[in-house]
Amino acid sequence: MKRALVDYDSGSGSGSESEPTNPSDKPEASSSVIRPPVKRRQTDDIGAQAPPLAPAPIPAAPLNGNSGTRIAPPKPAPNLTSPLPALGDRFNDVNPSNPRTTVTDDPSLHQGRQRQVPHIPGNWPSHIYIDWNPSSGDRELLTSLINKLKAEVKSAAQRFADLEGVEIHTALQESDVPVDRPLHISLSAPITLTSNNKDDFLDDLTKAIKSCRVSPFVLDFSGGVDWYRSEESTRSFLVLRVREVQNIGNAAVSSPNPQLTALLEQCNNVVKEYRQPPLYDSQDMGYRFHVTIAWTHARPSASLKQLTNSVFDDCKTMPSENVSIRDKLRTGSNLRVQTVKVKIGNYVTRFELRDKGVRLPVKTA
């Protein structure tokens, strides 16, 4: 039985590191909590007099002779062509989601998306995950895939009835404003904690990740693309399957993602202690790790899957490089995993994986 694909809108980023639990030992993983910034109340003093505006200069009229003074025209503003600096990787920990304006679920505000778990006051929606903030080149690549797929679906809808009305939405940007958003690899299903047990959960998860003894590792996106929809979900998801880049000379392993599997097993053990659903709790869990890049309300028909694979393998999707997106992702994109994050409500805690000095594998074509 397939588990529900994680339908959780999480942010990413980071916070300051905490001191080791045992001062005599170097920690296996350090954690820190990023709290949302406290908003200052805006005041509007009724009747307060606004500061006077500076009077505009009155230019002197042109006069004959040497009498009169001309006011020099203002200098034009400098042409600032340099791009704005990139936001730090800890920005989204402080701003993990849009502020809640109501406790009721209104799908019309979220492109028709519905909550899998209803909001209940006193409950804390939570999620364990690994962030991926794609580079500008990777974002351009994935955007090309999604835009090309949208165009192909629209064109083919005239010939295939199962594509009529299919609308694909990107997961690379926020729905309401054109702001890039980080993607993620889930290490838990959407879970719900309470005010009474959330602190204990965080303590238990910290101990579990420390005991896991997983060092930083490298992932690539050579697992291909796939559409997935669980019975519980109202959406279908376009996902990139991830694979760990193995050190040359290592013994063969039964799972393509042994480090991810070790982390997930520890997370599942803690989650089940709090009577929450585990993620990928099956023998094939190592093959199921992914990054969601797009979604649709439609069910993934045979025509949609065929079109997706065609666009993914077509060299014309990236005509400037004459290479398919599949090959481009396989040979050029990777993710160095150094941090695991847990979001409880709007509070994000990060766990740094201890670097044991093991040489990370170098990805080759």
Q: Which class best fits the helix and strand makeup? A: alpha+beta
Which value, in Å, is the CA radius of gyration? Answer: 26 Å
The description of the largest β-sheet is: 6 strands, antiparallel
Return residue spans where pLDDT drops below 50 for at least 5 consecutive residues: 7-28, 43-49
- Note the beta-strand portion: 15-25%
Distance between the termini: 36 Å
Q: How do the SSEs run, as a string of H and E? A: EHEHEEEHEEEEHEHHEEE
Beta strand count: 13
Please tell me the overall pLDDT: 77
Query: What is the overall shape?
Result: globular
Number of helices: 6
* Residue share in helix: 10-25%
Can you lay out the helices and strands and say which pair or pack?
Blueprint: E1 29-34, H1 91-94, E2 123-132, H2 136-156, E3 169-170, E4 183-186, E5 191-194, H3 198-212, E6 217-220, E7 225-228, E8 236-241, E9 243-244, H4 258-273, E10 290-296, H5 302-313, H6 325-332, E11 334-337, E12 339-344, E13 347-353
Antiparallel strand pairs: 1-13, 2-4, 2-5, 2-12, 3-10, 6-9, 6-11, 7-8, 8-10, 12-13
